[in-house]
Amino acid sequence: MEVMIVDDEPVARRSVRECCEREPDLKVVGEFGDPSAALQAIRLQPPQLLFLDIQMDSMSGLALARALDPLSLPLIVFVTAYDQYALEAFEVSAVDYLLKPFDDARFKATLARVRRRHQAHGSLDRRSALEALLEQLERGARARADAQPRVLAEAGSRMHMLDVSQVEVVEADRNYVRLTIGRETFHARSTLQQAERTFQAQPMLRISRSCLVNMSHVREVSRTPRGDFILVVAGGTTITSSEGFREPVRQYLERLKLAPA
């Protein structure tokens, strides 16, 4: 089977690659640290098997998977450090996963299931499995929201408890993230990747390397002459997607359109 590996951590890519190289029926034909470049390569020449990291800074593995052509969808093994809710989702669906850090025995067990599915299932079955996985992940995210609905952030010299559902925009700001609610801004010490996990119960969409938008607060969408998306949230803040995230944003918005009668 032809294999592609997508992970923004070089050490993680090497680990998967070395495991693949020990298997005589696997051939690594592509290795990517940039999800956008990976998406282009997969569309140009789809592999039979894709090892895909979920938590990447520029584009999540789930967003990349959603953007793939369902008619040429490869077998996907998600590489993840997700918590128990997500692991249960992977177990329920027909999509496999590797939990970081994994050993050779776990890799071989995963590969055995991949080989069986490669012989038995087509791309439409894989798309159904992927949709089942996403549904399970969203269900788990809602359960997490009930357990942790608030975050602590600073404005001026005071600390504030913020309801995560009210946060409209999350932006990277050096060693902090800037949280926007209406006309107010707050700061919390965090990376954008950590914030993305904290807010995963919300419909957060990454529109650039440094910005997440809560799509439940978006009121207007337009485009620049070059094709980037301009989003206006309820509080009036305007943010623009970057070129590298143009396609994931387009894919997300396409799914929100009403089907014609």
CATH architecture of the largest domain: 3-Layer(aba) Sandwich
Number of domains: 2
Total DSSP E strands = 15
Mean pLDDT: 84
Q: In CATH's first tier, which class of the largest domain applies?
A: Alpha Beta
| Sequence of secondary-structure elements | EHEHEHEHEHHEEEEEHEEEEEH
Offer a few descriptive terms:
261 residues; alpha/beta; Rossmann fold; five-stranded antiparallel sheet; 8 helices; globular
Explain what this protein looks like in three dimensions.
With 261 residues, the chain is α/β, with parallel strands linked by helices. The chain has 2 domains: 2-146, 3-Layer(aba) Sandwich (Rossmann fold), CATH 3.40.50.2300; 150-256, LytTr DNA-binding domain (OB fold (Dihydrolipoamide Acetyltransferase, E2P)), CATH 2.40.50.1020. 37% of the residues lie in helices and 30% in strands. It contains 8 helices and 15 strands. The strands form 4 sheets. It has a 5-stranded parallel beta sheet with strand order 2-1-3-4-5, sandwiched between helices. α4 (84-92) runs antiparallel to α6. The chain is globular, with a radius of gyration of 19 Å. 35% of the residues are buried. The mean pLDDT is 84.
How do the helices and strands line up, and which of them pair or pack?
Layout: E1 2-6, H1 10-21, E2 27-32, H2 35-44, E3 49-53, H3 61-66, E4 75-80, H4 84-92, E5 96-99, H5 104-120, H6 123-147, E6 150-155, E7 158-163, E8 169-173, E9 176-181, E10 184-189, H7 192-198, E11 204-208, E12 211-214, E13 218-223, E14 229-233, E15 238-240, H8 246-256
Parallel strand pairs: 1-2, 1-3, 3-4, 4-5
Antiparallel strand pairs: 6-7, 8-9, 8-12, 9-10, 11-12, 13-14, 14-15
